[in-house]
Amino acid sequence: MRVSRNSRLIIPYLEKTYEALEPLAYPLIRFTAGVMMIPHGYLKLFGGLDSTTAFFKSVSLEPAYYLAVYIGALEFVGGILLALGFLTRLVAAQFIGLLAVATFYIHLKNGFLWIKGGYEYPLFWMLVMIAILFKGAGRISVDQSLPKEF
Question: Is 140 helix (H, G, I), strand (E, B) or coil?
Fold first, then answer.
């Protein structure tokens, strides 16, 4: 294994490994972001619609039932689509809207820390979704195999 003499790495022998794995970095982020949303939607759609609807009503988000169904479907189906890299920008844009409401309407009043009900977690995921919106699906995706991307 040949290592560049001008490598900026502390451990230069890792250079080839990093180069080989770099193309997987973004798909891993996009896939993980999608997969992380799926359980939230699953719980809402398959047993939690009543409690989600009640919560939405309690914070004046109406029509609460339809929003609960939409958010559950977005998190569940949209999470799957995002993980696969299909309709990636469209899905990411919808997640940005959801997470903006969660960040600024629901959690902002509780301060920053997530463990205190704060906006840390939804803000982080909103920023990830903004990055995904800007980047698109990337090379390892269903969108890549389509003639046009959203």
Answer: coil
